[in-house]
Amino acid sequence: MKKGKRAFNGLTLVRVLIYLFFGLFLILPLLSVFLVSFTGQPVNLLGSLTDPAIFDSTIEKFKGVSLDAYQSIITSKGYFNSLVNSLKLAITVAVLVILICVPIAYGIARTTMPFKRTISALCTIPLIVPTFISAYAFILMFGRSGWITAIYQKLGGDGMLIDPYSMAGIVIVQVFFFFPYALWPMVAAFKVSDITLEEASLNLGAKNWFTFVFVTFPLALPGIISSALLIFTVSFSDFGTPIILAPKELNLLVVEAYREIAGFYNWGGAAILTVVMVLVAAFFFWLQTLLTKGRNYGSVSGKPKMQRLNSHSGLTKVLSGYSILIVLVPFLAMISIVIQSFATTWGKDFLPNGYTLKHYQTIFTSSLGNIQNSLILAFGALVLSVVIATFVSYFVVRQNAAKLDFVTNIPLIVPGIAFGIALIQTFNTAPLQLTGTALLLIIAYTIRRLPYMIRSTMGTMRAIKQDIEEAAINLGATPLTAAITIIGPLMLPGIAAGSLLVFITVIKETSISILIAPAEWAPMSLAIFQNILRGEYYTAAAMSVILVILVLFLQAVANRLSKND
Amino acid sequence: MGAVTVHQLNKEFSGVKALNNVNLEIEEGEFFALLGPSGCGKTTTMRCIAGFEDPTSGTITIGKEQVNHIPPNRRNCGMVFQSYALFPHMNVFENVAYSLNIKQLNEKNVLAKLGVYARLLNRRLGRMPKDMERKVMEILEYMELDQYAERLTSELSGGQQQRVALGRALVMEPAVLLMDEPLSNLDQKLRHSMRNTIRRIQQDLGITTIFVTHDQEEAMSMADRVAVMNNGEVMQIGKPTDLYSHPSTSFIANFVGTSNSLHVNSAIQEGMYTILKGDGFTLKTLHQSKGDGTAIIRPESIQIHHRDTEMNPDSMNILEGEILISTYLGSIVRYEVKFANHQLIVDATYASGESILKPGTKIKLAIDPERVLVI
């Protein structure tokens, strides 16, 4: 198919609708937040188009445009501190994650380390747990009455081993729960280097360690740096950990922005923090794509690379021991949550005083609604994502819609809290008053998760040869009919797996839920969050367990689906 | 059924010219081959006819209708793709039935439309009308595929897949049948038998067929007429025998079969012959020449004599040469012969028991003046 003059058909209409969707729910909110960051007052762009009175007031606001807000970033101690703290946090986490991951990645990729499978399996735990639950689990372990603190004090320690309510606490939680994001790209990076290069080095007389330092490691370096940048963005945008653990005096951008909007309705302040967040995230995302451009770590070439695995027994044992130690931390955190959910009371002791199913009972009597909400909202987002992702990947792969590709990737650089603020501030007044509706929530989830979904559907789409579609058209089908009867069914396995992942991540989603979910549509994540705030820890733990089990179950289904394909 | 006319067709891909003033007139019921090396524009020409590419300029007519502005799904050109492009999620029957379902989709009301969509998505959701079913089965029987109707296409052999692709294109009774290198994915033996099958079906149905190939043997053995293309231009159109015996350029002479090209500096008319002079040789030919040009001699037009046999230098060109390399190819022996400052390829029929000449053997070459072509 060629672009250019072509009759207006069903597909063109779909394309226009998709552009409208992204224009309305992604570009417009980001644009108005950007404007608000200058005006300091809410700007109703949609309203300006429909209502002359609003239009006039908008013009009036634009007359008051100033850089005051931006100056306050430098002058106001709070904002500037929060930026510095956020950067500090993200950089520290990124560096620590890389340091921690290098040995594990090397172990998995290039050695015959024992327990490789177990370690790999345990590495998935952090990925399925929402960060605010991991933060809370960390309190169960290291808090004032945590069981590790109990052990520490029995051993003669004083106070707490680590105070979870501190920068250090946040760093540790993020390091242990984000490292898998970096681990797998790094494993791939270590597999890049060809054995022949290493053999060449050995052949030229280099020792093993020398080869590692000067051949294997430099070859893996671009992959490692790119992982570090990824972790930076993830940590920078993370809302769940800081909102639970950040003490009052520790300002972080995400928390500050949340407080401005949820506590003080300070639109100008929230807008400026949002803009700063997006800019920082975008910059690091750009750095990362710059680095990975033209690089492909997958096993794309048909020729299998021979890889020599290091089987030095001492080394592999040390690596394995170390790796298990690292992956054990998130595992223990989860165990703590599970134990808490069954505990009658769990004070300053190694184990609870007694066990009960009471908390689960409470949930199934009073909080069933939250589970239901989560499922409905996630299902809504799933349906919307499937439709949009399928068509978008069709347009991008088949019709070279580069602009559409760009637009649908924008959500990658917008931290959840920033996106939430943008949405609230755009849709809280007429003509499109959607704030507080389930619809806006579903749309927000969808847009946030679409880039990932589109990536997976695009892969499937690329695997379908253009011939097949042309054959259908040649046999008389319109492009839309061909898409429905041929492309759709062929993409089904990819779509199914991708949409389950959307479902899972929506259930896990924290920042958007906390920010824009109305009370009657509160999903599980919001319920857990509120329980923790209210000090109802046991119910929170039980609900967390249910959430994680739900995610685990769906993940297993998704894995099965993508394997059959 | 219809004739196909391509008039002054041009196609550019982001500034690069893929087709340059292509003109074709294909008669109704004709088997027409587009022959050329890869990248010559033959597939682009076919895709323009099918409507998958919009020509930059020029017109395409199928039957009496100009089709430039008709979208590909309404051109009624049955196409057989190089990869067959069978729908992997449908069985043989459903593949062949697809176009009939689509046809119904365009005719019926909304409810019936939904029914067609439903059965296209899942066969359990509806049945095709009996007459359509019969039509599909007829085609399957004709293609000798009836016992495979329920098979998935991935369970078929290459030749069977090829026949499904052909049957799927034929069931919609297209005005023109387009085939894009349909035999290139088959092994040597199957290719030969499919050639016959395709030719027989084409003759049987009398359907106008355009066949794209880079294999000159395929084009020459199947087509009524062949258009040789190179660099986006049509070089020559003609019957296979004409192309072989009267190539218009040395490119065609070399592309259609093997040939020896010798540069000619001057040509003098002498009685019935034209005497061609080149670097170290003189040849006489019965064909006309303007002077400067190229003499084309097919390898099988040269005879080798290595014993002193009587030859009439008046009626034959007699040249002296020396064997450089000899290659035994089964029914023939191909010699590379050094002659003056040139090398010639000579094919000699090989009869069993005969000995093959060794490199270094001095020989005489005899060439009939009738078979020295001049371009």
Describe what you observe in this structure.
The complex is a heterodimer of chains A (565) and B (375). Chain A is mainly α. Chain A has two domains: 231 residues, MetI-like fold (Orthogonal Bundle), CATH 1.10.3720; 199 residues, Orthogonal Bundle (MetI-like fold). By secondary structure, chain B is of the alpha+beta class. Chain B has two domains: 242 residues, P-loop containing nucleotide triphosphate hydrolases (Rossmann fold, 3-Layer(aba) Sandwich), CATH 3.40.50.300; 117 residues, RNA polymerase II/Efflux pump adaptor protein, barrel-sandwich hybrid domain (OB fold (Dihydrolipoamide Acetyltransferase, E2P), Beta Barrel), CATH 2.40.50.100. Chain B is 27% helix and 34% strand. In chain B, strands 6-7-8-3-9-10 form a six-stranded mixed β-sheet, with helices on both faces. A five-stranded antiparallel β-sheet of chain B has the order 13-12-11-14-20. In chain B, strand 16 and strand 17 form a beta hairpin. Chain B is elongated. Chains A and B meet through helix 22 and helix 23 of A and strand 6, helix 2 and helix 3 of B.
Count of β-strands of chain A: 0
Order of helical and strand elements of chain A: HHHHHHHHHHHHHHHHHHHHHHHHHH
Bulk shape of chain B: elongated
Instruction: Report the CATH superfamily of the largest domain in chain B.
Output: P-loop containing nucleotide triphosphate hydrolases
Number of domains of chain B: 2
Q: In the CATH hierarchy, what is the architecture of the largest domain in chain B at level 2?
A: 3-Layer(aba) Sandwich
First CA to last CA of chain A: what distance?
Answer: 27 Å
Largest sheet of chain B: 6 strands, mixed
The level-1 CATH class of the largest domain in chain B: Alpha Beta
Number of domains of chain A: 2
Largest sheet of chain A: none
In CATH, the homologous superfamily of the largest domain in chain A goes by the name: MetI-like
- The fraction of residues in strands of chain B falls at 25-35%
